[in-house]
Design goal:
With 186 residues, the chain is α+β, with helices and mostly antiparallel strands. The chain contains seven helices and four strands. The chain has a four-stranded antiparallel sheet.
Length: 186
């Protein structure tokens, strides 16, 4: 029903000569170019498949970049080292990390008790990730960790193996990504 209505409207627009106006001609040219571009992209993808060996290599490269462990951490970010040292003293006195996190200057985590959720160490800046991966579960840094953001006190809550989707599950997305990269270079 909709196709008939669209066809009828197209016929009426053509009879009125709307296809000859500069605005409509410009839009039709854009549509034509998009159709050609999409046809070229589809043709390229069909005629330039990515070998499985290359897909597996890319998969393994991404896995290596992500790492084999995820860390559930909390942190408190302050501007001055003395502030961070005082937080560590208060933690040693038995104050709760979550309560002390309210003074953090990280707006994304301070209202959640400093919770950073599960992440790969590679998602953090190097000094932070280095300190995080050296901690034992349930322990916090006893020396402030300096980054370009300020001084951190970090608590490691847990560690688990990284949940990585199986190769076969991500193979289509990898192929599309590698083909798109190759198309850009051609």
């Amino acid at each position: 029903k909709r196709a008939k209505c669209n066809t009828f409207a197209t016929v009426k627009a053509t009879r009125k000569g709307l296809q000859k106006t500069p605005e409509v001609q410009a839009q039709l040219e854009l549509v034509r170019q998009n159709v050609l571009l999409n046809a070229y992209r589809e043709d390229y993808m069909k005629n330039n498949p990515v070998p499985d060996a290359q897909l597996k290599a890319e998969y393994e490269k991404i896995r290596a970049e992500v790492g084999d462990k995820e860390y559930k951490a909390r942190h408190i970010l302050v501007e001055k080292e003395d502030e961070a040292k005082l937080i560590i003293v208060n933690l040693k006195k038995g104050q709760k990390f979550e309560d002390l996190a309210k003074q953090s200057k990280d707006p994304g985590s301070k209202d959640r008790g400093g919770d950073l959720d599960w992440n790969s160490p590679k998602s953090y800046v190097k000094p932070f990730s280095d300190a995080l991966t050296k901690l034992d579960k349930g322990k916090y840094t006893e020396v402030p960790v300096q980054t370009q953001f300020g001084y951190h006190v970090i608590l490691l809550e847990d560690v688990r193996p990284t949940k990585f989707p199986p190769f076969e599950e991500v193979k289509p997305q990898l192929a599309e990504r590698l083909q798109a990269q190759a198309l850009e270079k051609s």
